[in-house]
Amino acid sequence: MITSVFGKSKPINFILCSGIILIYFVIHLLSSDKNISVALLSLELPVVFLLLFSLFMVDFIVKKNDLTQQNDYTLLIVALFIGFFPNIFEHITIVCIHVLVLLAFRRTISLRSLHSVKQKLFDASIYITAALLLDSWIVVYLFIIYIGIMLYVSSDYKNWLVPFVGVFVILNIYLTYMYISGQNIGAASIVKFDLQIQYSLENYKRIALHLLITLLFCINIVILFLKIKTYSSQKKNSFLLTNVLFFIGITYVLFAKNTTYNTEILLLFPLGIFTANLLENIENKRMRNILLILLMIVSFGFNFYLK
Asked: 3-state DSSP call for residue 256?
């Protein structure tokens, strides 16, 4: 069954999860009213490659930082969760933001090694600022870098200044480009903030998704409370950083502009960790298989019936 395949970490599992994303893409193409053409594929295939790369990043972060046991549940769950966004292939902006946030988180959580600290902080700030150029509310993700500094490298005051340097470099390049090209700097996306919460109770699919997200988070909190004493200090910090990433993602989802669709995709990584930890704490294999099968059914249901 499913747990027998993904219960152990194997290279073949990444190929299987990549296949799931490709199946979603085929379903999207066949269920779309658009005519399949070279022009359409040139727009949406890059999104597929970015999603596959994000899947690789998820796998790398989890295994490098021991966020789960030696299994590939997170990989499978994230691949299945992508099915909750059947139109994601039409929105390259949010997928680019998703990849950049994962790259920034990878550099931030790797501060635990205490090697190349300033380089990692600079890289993380570069990634977040690059995403900031796509949507101004991504600025909230700079907070994750400073949480990382607090947890791992707070003793050196210079570390607190490094992210500002990264932000300044990217913004300076961007604003210089806008000035040279004669564009209006005031019209740049980085200066557009709408403090109104962007949420509608009329989108039942989104409400159902948010209820599932809330349920998984509540279960995660219970598990974390029960198991925290058995975790090492490094693992506690890693889980704290993952939970902070989740809350930052919630903030972004609430305030992101209406022009940025499927913002919940930024919650996939922490949700994958939460669900994997839930499965690890279920001793009954049959129950684990049932939960994964139900998740798979709901995921494909979103593609076929809730587009």
From this structure: coil
Kind and range of the H or E run holding 76: helix 73-82
* Cα 146 from Cα 148, distance rounded (Å): 5
Question: How far is residue 115's CA from residue 108's CA, in Å, rounded to a whole number?
Answer: 12
Q: What would the pLDDT profile of 209-252 be if each residue is shown by its tens digit? A: 777 788 888 887 887 777 777 777 888 888 899 999 999 999 88
Task: Provide the 8-state DSSP code for 154.
Answer: T
Contact 101, 244 (CB under 8 A): no
Instruction: Return all residues near 80 (Cβ < 8 A) that are at least 6 apart.
Output: 20, 295, 296, 299
DSSP 282: -
Q: Model's pTM, two decimal places?
A: 0.90
Among the residue ranges 52-56, 155-159, 282-286, the one predicted with the least confidence is: 282-286
Are residues 138 and 131 in contact, defined by beta-carbon separation less than 8 angstroms?
A: yes
- Dihedral (Cα; 12, 14, 18, 20), 10-degree rounding: 80
Distance CA 97, CA 102 (A): 9
For the chain, give every domain's residue range.
1-91+196-307, 92-193
Q: Provide the token pair at 52.
A: 């596959």
Within a 10 A sphere around the Cβ of 210, how many other Cβ atoms? 16
Which one-letter amino acid corresponds to residue 2?
A: I
How does pLDDT run across 71-123, given as a tens digit for each residue? 899 999 999 999 888 889 988 999 999 999 999 999 999 999 889 999 999 99
| CB-based contact 73:114 (threshold 8 Å) | no
On the question of pLDDT at 201 being above 60, the answer is no
Q: Give, in order, the Cα–Cα distances in Å from 97 to each of 123, 266, 286.
A: 15, 8, 37
Say if residue 6 is exposed, middle or buried (CB neighbours under 10 Å; 0-12, 13-18, 19+).
buried
> Which residues does 255 contact at the CB level (< 8 Å), separation at least 6?
137, 140, 194, 195, 196, 197, 198
